Amino acid sequence: MVSSQPNMERFLRDWRQDALNKAQYESAIFIGDKLLAMTKDDNDAFWLAQVHFAAGNYARAHDLLSKHNLVSSNPSCRYLAAHCLIRQNNYTEALALLGEHTPTHLFATASNTRRKTHRTAARGTRAGSRNPDRQPDHLTDEEWSIRRYEAGMCYLRGLCYAKENAFDRAKEAYKDALRIDVQCYEAFTQLVRNSLMSPDEEDEFMQSLDFNTVRAPRGGDDPELKTEPGDYVHMLYQTQLSKYRNPRAFNTAVESLSTHYGLADNADLLLARADLYYTQCRFKDALGITASILRDDPSHFPAYPIHLACLYELKQTNELFLVAHDLADKHPDKACTWLAVGTYYLATGKIADARRYFSKSSMMDATFGPAWIGFAHTFAAEGEHDQAVTAYSTAARLFSGTHLPQVFLGMQNHAMNNLAAAEEYLRAAYQLCRADPLLLNEMGIVLYHQERWKDAAKFFRQALRVAEDTEADPHAWLGVRINLGHAYRKLRMHDEALEEFDGVLRDGGKNAAVFCAKALILLDKGLPDEAARVAHEALAVNPQDPIATELLNKALEESALGGVEELVEGFGGVGLDAPVAGAGEEAGAAREMEQFEMELEERKAAARERLERRRAGAGKGKGWWGGGIISLEGEEGWWRGRRRMW
After folding, report:
1. Residue 318, exposed/middle/buried by CB under 10 A (0-12, 13-18, 19+)?
2. Could you give the CA distance from residue 349 to residue 623 in angstroms, rounded to a whole number?
3. Lowest-pLDDT range of 50-64, 244-258, 456-470, 623-637
4. With contact defined as beta carbons under 8 Å apart, do 356 and 151 qualify?
5. Are 508 and 641 in contact (CB under 8 A)?
6. Under the phi-then-psi rule, with left for phi > 0, alpha for psi from -120 to 50, and beta for the rest, what region is 99?
7. What is the pTM for the complete model shown?
């Protein structure tokens, strides 16, 4: 229908758009209502609904679309109506409106095969991606708009599934959104931040996406111009993926984005680098980056989980208090605020308070992974293993792509001496991530307790190799070297064990438990004088160490016995009942050493029981980082390395 007032309509549309651009929603609604009354145009009704949505009037926007029968007219109106219902928490109704059918005909065609995504250092382009003939420039602007709204509806469908706890279906819906429109960042961030995919899944899915569908600006004949936007989007996504999979690919993407596109100081790229440092246990480096991000933008909430975890690891409780207090004053409606409060209380040993605030954070945002993990940590800190297992199991169900809940489940079962269950959980974590030294160390510990020392040594070596390959902080994994030394000791690979222990003492300073392990090996090798010297060094570090005292006494006894035997040999054995050397002498010595180790075990177990009774009387557990049960593997239990918060 031809309008009778074309100039006035154009004037009103410009006025409405200007008011919307300036966030003057009342003006935009007032003018948009008059314009709709004049034109009765569906497009003007849609834009008035958009203004209502921007103003937070979700019910009015939905009613307006329904009144004008626009909900089923095209994807844009159906998307907006469903979004209004979701904002009103009407997820069932929104899902009924969206339907469960995915427009698979909009997926990339079979020509979009899996390909390598290595990039050149100069331009950061994907190998084999330059094929401008596949760029879908034949689509009109309207067709492109419909395609993107269809992707948006897949994203909304995923939100509805997630609210119904159907996380597998939610993951597929998010992936469908990206298959239709690779620029649907909302779907991508739901997949990544909620850890719905394992590192291997992320890599495979990224290779399946066709970044050539990213629409380049029209009017250019340069092939580079047609592929560059897709390369740019791919690199941005690469920086958000798990840092366990391929840190070198991450560094290449960051370098290209920083060098060619001026993003060196961008908060998202800085946060991605801080995340990498955190996985490498370089907590000071990660904290320096997150602190700089929050100085520039105190409301950059994605930075807080890593920032809080680093403060916790570095025991900066005063700074934790200041951060938590500031967030509670300014942002009481944010889940990370109460995560900060809970972390502070956990760091100061107030476990019940920490649990309450972690629970509050998880209730405010059910998809906030750190809150669930922190909540479970509070039970582990008090030795409430059954409740900790339940809480970690919930986290594993909610965040199926991350291996950490499975690792913590394995650690809890290990603490309860359920070694078979512990190994099962750790192997499930290993299927999700094979490049975390923490996980590899825990697997080695469980195998060690099962007396599978050769397999344990293999995992300890693998943990150290991964830590070196990922440029992790070597001091954070000295405990793994200690564990490897003990595995070598059990395998009677004495020289290798001594090499590991000497390396730990050289790099990590004096440690009484390591000196004790060295003394035990020297005793086993028949070098009591050397063992006595090392036991003295252990006592110099910790004069009250009972193991060092026992080892010193044993070494002195054997040294004295050795002196008597030398004297007997000098006199030819005259007048003395000298023992006759036989083939079983070495086996007898080994049995004697095993008996001595068993006695040490019993003494250590008795001391540990007394310590546990005192702790129980004080109402405190072992701490969420502890939980070892072997005597010589450290004064305070088994060496676990550095256990991350989340």
Report:
1. exposed
2. 9
3. 623-637
4. no
5. no
6. left
7. 0.82
